[in-house]
Amino acid sequence: MGIRSARKIHRDTKIPLSTISYQLKKLRTQGSLQHQAGNDQRCKIGAKCSRALGQFIRRNNEVTLYELVEKLHNQYKLTVSTSTISRHLHRLQYEKCLPLNTSILTPEYKERRVEWTKQHLNDNWKSIVFTDECSFQLFRNTIRHWSKNPKEDKKRIPKNRQKVHVWSSINSHGKVGFHLFQSIMDSVYYIEILENNLIHNAKR
């Protein structure tokens, strides 16, 4: 095929020019493109420190790479970079992920809700109004942690967090009332919400 320049090969194959130049230099100096044995960089993290990393993560799966570097240095006198630890954890199939939020709903609560639904299955829902309150957190939790199953990872959170609160009611026709507030709800305030947002709207 004849001799071709690096740029010509780059145009024909779309391989990065830097890669082609490196391989051509390797061919001129070694006479071959084969990888020479014995020049692999050995991993600095041995079996003992590898087990220690797993223990650190099991104790606190939100530990950072910088904290892992410090722990290995203090406890095992091993000095490595954060990138070295990151690559090693990747080989161990760990990923840094953000867990899915899930409500704290115990099996007992689930069973009680299903039982209530069965008991009221044939009720006249046209005369029923459902009300509920919910809290919305303005700043979501973005703390990532290490996991080998990131798609199945969940973090249990409480339902009511002190942020922005919403009260609303619905019936078979749709929305009945809506109220937004930030104060703490007590019995007096709850009655006020019902009087201003439920009773009048439910009669329409």
TrEMBL record:
InterPro entries documented for this protein: Homeodomain-like_sf, RNaseH_sf, Transposase_Tc1-like
An example Gene Ontology molecular-function term: DNA binding
Record's protein name: Transposase Tc1-like domain-containing protein
Native organism: Rotaria sordida
Record-annotated Transposase Tc1-like domain positions: 51-122
Single GO BP term: DNA transposition
